[in-house]
Amino acid sequence: MELNTMFYVALTLLVGSLFGRLAAMIKLPTVTGYIFGGLLLGPSFFHIMPENVVESMDIISEIALAFISFTIGLSFKASYLRRVGLTPLIIAALESTLAAVLVASSLFLIGTDPAFALIMGAIAAATAPTSILLVMKEYRAKGPVSEMLKSVAALDDATALILFGFSSTAVKILVNTGENINILSSIFQPIFSVFLSLAIGAIIGFIMKYPLKYTKTSGQKLTLLIAFVFLTSSVSVGLGVSELLAAMMTGTVLTNISSDAPQMGEFSDRFTPPIFLMFFVLAGAQLNIHIIPTVGLIGIMYTVFRIVGKVTGAYFGSLLMRTPKVVRNYLGFMLLPQAGVGIGLITISAGILPEYADQIRTVVLSATLLYEFSGPVITKIVLRKTGEIQSIPSNAKEAADF
Fold it and tell me: Where are the extended beta strands (E) located within 207-327?
């Protein structure tokens, strides 16, 4: 009997539910359980899910990332933005830039190709803290560190894309591809992409207010929520800009102009748990622990100096902006996970430096495996030390259903 995609969707949901509950029983974040369940299904262990099936379910990742970004945007009320000012932007810029500089410099010093070092540094700038944000939701985290993390995580995507744009321009010049490179255009293109992403989100968020205003039933409002989040993501992808930034901006605009925004947050919380579960199970199914021994010194340097850059950059950014001491000391440790944007940059990098495509992929995916497993656990420890965990799920069932 040939198994179709629906079977694998069911398998993903069942395995995620089982391992999420088991993780909660041994006091681990449920996200860690989801990822481990995915590892068992993928090439790391039993290879139950074929690669083509995992690839065919990419839409799950797009939906999950769009909704987490939209939800982050809903928390950006004008009063909050006035209160935090430029602080999240400065922190995001410093932690991204320092991670990129330290990784690129360390790889250059051990004798790698400067073009390769620059590209690896640019990829190191990216953070994809979806797993961290879900751990915060699971434990109902609330406090200065949690609040700052939401803002910095939302802006990290923009700073990473801009840094990658600058680095890729420098690499094209170094490798001398023979193409006519418009340096000015290459530098401003990523900045323009960021602004276009924000413009798309702002327009859709503004439009979204009106059908919500005249819709009465919960079912109709939920339908509109899904439709507009999907619309934001699809338009952004179609135009080649960041759907994460666009979805975040949609939520930001909506929360500041519509009285329906709080209800949209509630509907999102009801709709997304199985989507997030599948997202992390599939993420685990795409990872292969057998590639870890092949990363060598380059992989070690990338992983270590990215951590140093993120933690140190967040510390000095927080110090510069005079945030509370608890933010300075702990924020950087929650910015380590790297999936989503970072993995997307692998594909772009392969087109710029095709001779290093396999090496880039191996190093970044190995680091991703480490970050995704350790990130949720580190986050729980940090939240406990900062006293920002509002409630611990009383049993495994409650935790698995967060």
Answer: none
